[in-house]
Structure formats: C-alpha cells, structure tokens
Amino acid sequence: AMTTIGDLPEDVLVELLSLLPVRDLLRTCRLVCMQWRYVVDLTTLWKRKCQRDGFYRQSLDRNISDWKIFYMLCHLKRNLIKNPCAEENFQHWTLDDNEGDEWKIEDLPGAHGNDMPDPAVHKYFVTSYGPCFKSQLITLKKEGYWNQLMDEKRPEITVKDWYAARFDCGCRYELTVRLLSKDYIVLEEFHPEPVVIEQWSDAKWREISHTFQNYPAGVRYIWFQHGGQDTQYWAGWYGIRVTNSSITIGPQT
Description:
Helix content: 10-25%
Number of helices: 6
CATH class of the largest domain: Mainly Beta
CATH architecture of the largest domain: Sandwich
Distance between the termini: 47 Å
Oligomer: single chain
CATH superfamily of the largest domain: Galactose-binding domain-like
Structural class: alpha+beta
Number of strands: 11
Order of helices and strands: HHHHHEEEEHEEEEEEE
Strand content: 25-35%
Largest sheet: 6 strands, antiparallel
C-alpha cells in the first residue's frame, strides 16, 4: 500500500522537516494538519535545527526553555549597525554634529596610530576640533525582531564600540545607546562618562561593551550615537577615532 508522508514515524518527520527553512515551517508546514503542527512545535525539531546550523552545545541543554525561540535568535543574529567600519563612506550614518574640519575617514593604522586587534578592519572614522557625533536608528521589526519576541523574551542586546586616540593629541570619546518605544520614548539608556585621553597616550584601540538585560517591554528601536573631538583645538583630524561598532541581539554563542 502507498504510504503518505503522514504515515511516517515522528522521528523521521522531525528529521525531514528540520531540513526546511524557518519561514516554510512556520508559515506553511505548521498549517498543514494537526499532526504537522504538533511536530513543528516539538522541542526535538528545533534542537535538531540548532544542531544542523551549528547553534547547539551540550552545555546549553539545561538553560534553554524554548528551543524554537533560541533557534530564531541564533538564526537572526548579526551586526545590526550598517557600515560599521567606514567601508561605504558615511552611508547609513546620520551626522548629528559635524564641526571643526568635520568627520573624515582614514585608513588604519593612521598617523601616530595603531592597528586594530581585528585584521579584518581597515578603516576608521575620525573626529576634528569641534564636536563630531554620528548615529544610527535601528528599527527592530525591519531587522526581523517582532514585537512579541522583544516584549516576552527580552533577548539580550549587546553593544560594542572601538575607539582610539592618536599619540600626539588629547581627545574625548562619548557613546550613547538608547532603547526606544514606538513613540521614541527612552526605556533604557547606556551613557557612560565621556572618556578623556591625554596627549602622549599609548594610542591603543579599546573596546567598550554593554549588554542590556531585563529591559522594559515595548522596545521597538535602538538608537546608537558616538563621537567626540580633540581637546587641543588643532585644525585637521586629531580627535577620537571610532570603528567596528556593533549591536547584536540574542544568545552569546
């Protein structure tokens, strides 16, 4: 007798369905019939997908309450800051303050500077003698993070930025990151004290990092702004250098 796909044992069905992309599973397969919906919602299916895509580690077993959500977050995870390393000029950035001789892009290591620890980074943005600040506004829904996910799961939001001075000039660096509601109300903010670097420093690249956890429900946007200026008012580009900014959401894999 002909067997239909519905006659397959559950473990075989799990194996087959786990090969499909998330979108197909949730938008199509889950609606086929009761049995398929049951299988698509099985922990084993999402665990299998995590294994296939390299998101699975044995040590996670006890800590993960929802493998489906865990898979989705891993699958979506990427840097939400566009053009973080100045490869596309100032594209995607809003220049909020552009004073002195204005923002400029230079190649690493730059005059009186150092290379980045990450050899994949080749350029940086540099500030002048007047305030230079630039920002990006990230719309979470556009990036695949739906409202219910943000409100119920509150996945970790990790922000990182790299900054450096040049050896021969003092400067200051500032960072502000805000989690905003749909009406752009600030629900949570990371705004550390500005970093002031004296002249004749080691000019090394330093990373600043912050993870938002257990933030309020209702986050719909993330606003990222950084910049600064030199502290000696020298014409040209002697201020803080920034590059390799990132915002990632979800589990630390």
